[in-house]
Structure formats: structure tokens, C-alpha cells
Write a structure and sequence with these properties.
heterodimer; A: mainly beta; 7-stranded mixed beta sheet; 4-stranded antiparallel beta sheet; B: mainly beta; 5-stranded antiparallel beta sheet; 11 strands; 0% helix; globular
Chain lengths: 116, 114
């Protein structure tokens, strides 16, 4: 068990470019979450996967954002046509959950995005 | 809509002091409450999770209490050390669509100086 990993750890891009982040959850964790954290704030929920199915998306997730979790393993979060307001830390978490039961989310180190 | 507030936003203390960090939430219908630690530029480390049926949890020098009816939780840090310097986040947990939904406060930035 090596924990949740995220790549890259840092990304600097110019406004209008597309970026993609990757999250590798703890093996055998069936649930995967993406959060966004802006400076001085707590993380905010973006989206949630149960295995390969994306079951919920926040209103924060505009149509420029897309997330996938093929084969229910790693996940990618893509931001198209980045804007300066997208600058934030993007955190991934995974858990082993069952319907309505208690679960513990384990967080990765995050990807810090800066849009110039 | 659930809102989570943490007070104070920042705290600077000398080493050795006992500290109380506060977290309040507007909707008492929560499943659990969890306290996290975040070092600068890093991810979140879980410190304590309090189930809704519990009133407190302890781990080493940390003690967290929960009063659901008043919508409050406190994190008590005994005999603070410089290594405790970090941001402390509380998150209320509800069950939404079959999964645990975490709603975070903005955190308390703690600096413990020697």
C-alpha cells in the first residue's frame, strides 16, 4: 500500500491551454474523489467515481472539466481552455466504500496548477 | 445548505501552550466529523474521526469533541510543539447518494514557535 499518488505535482500553463492530471488510488479502493482547493480555503468536492462510473458531479465542474476512470483504476482530470480562475490545488482521494456505510477517504499530495 | 466555519483563521503561539481550535456547522444532521492536518503545499492527513454517536476521540496529544445539537466541534492540542505547525481542517460528513460527502471549513493556520 503506497497511498494515493498524483502526477504531476506542479503544473504551470498559459491561459487557454489544456491540462490533464492523473490520480492513482490505493489499490482495490472502489471509490475515487476529486476536490479543488483554492488558497486559504478548504477543499471543495468536484466529482466522485464508484469503480468506473462517475456518479456525481458538482456544479463547480464546468463543461471545460472532464474526468474519467477507465477500468475503475487510475483517474484523469482534464481542464480545457484553462482560465486564471482555475489556478488551485487539485486533490484526489480514494476509499473502500459500501452503500450507506462508513468509509475513510485517503488523500493524495495534490497537483498545484498555476494558470498564467 | 451546510456551511462549516473554523475559528480562529490563524493562530501563533509559543511552544508548550495548550490550544483549542473551533469548528461550527449549520446543519446538525451529520453522519461523522473529521479533523485533518495539511502541511504547506501538501495533501491532507486524517487526525481524528468522530462518529455522530460519539462525543469525543483522542489520539496522543489530540482530543476532538463533538456536540451535534449545538453544531460544534473542538480540537484540543496539548503541549504544542513546533512540529504541530500546519493548517487544521474540519470536515462534516453526510451520506449523499450512497457515498460519504465531505464539506470542509477554511481551516485554522497554526504556527508554534520555539
Amino acid at each position: 500500500d503506497t497511498g494515493v499518488s498524483q502526477n504531476p505535482r506542479h503544473k504551470i500553463t498559459k491561459r487557454g491551454q489544456n491540462v490533464t492530471f492523473r490520480c492513482d488510488p490505493i489499490s482495490e479502493h472502489n471509490r475515487l474523489y476529486w476536490y479543488r482547493q483554492t488558497l486559504g480555503q478548504g477543499p471543495e468536492f468536484l466529482t466522485y467515481f464508484q469503480n468506473e462510473a462517475q456518479l456525481e458531479k458538482s456544479r463547480l465542474l464546468s463543461d471545460r472539466f472532464s474526468a474519467e476512470r477507465p477500468k475503475g483504476s487510475f483517474s484523469t482530470l482534464e481542464i480545457q481552455r484553462t482560465e486564471q480562475g482555475d489556478s488551485a490545488m487539485y486533490l484526489c482521494a480514494s476509499s473502500l466504500g459500501s452503500a450507506g456505510g462508513q468509509e475513510t477517504q485517503y488523500f493524495g499530495p495534490g497537483t498545484r496548477l498555476l494558470v498564467l | 445548505k451546510q456551511e462549516v466555519t473554523q475559528i480562529p483563521a490563524a493562530l501563533s503561539v509559543p511552544e508548550g501552550e495548550n490550544l483549542v481550535l473551533n469548528c461550527s456547522f449549520t446543519d446538525s444532521a451529520i453522519y461523522n466529523l473529521q479533523w485533518f492536518r495539511q502541511d504547506p503545499g501538501k495533501g491532507l492527513t486524517s487526525l481524528l474521526l468522530i462518529q455522530s454517536s460519539q462525543r469525543e476521540q483522542t489520539s496522543g496529544r489530540l482530543n476532538a469533541s463533538l456536540d451535534k445539537s449545538s453544531g460544534r466541534s473542538t480540537l484540543y492540542i496539548a503541549a504544542s510543539q513546533p512540529g504541530d505547525s500546519a493548517t487544521y481542517l474540519c470536515a462534516v460528513i453526510t451520506i449523499s447518494g450512497g457515498y460519504n460527502k465531505l464539506i470542509f471549513g477554511a481551516g485554522t493556520r497554526l504556527a508554534v514557535h520555539p
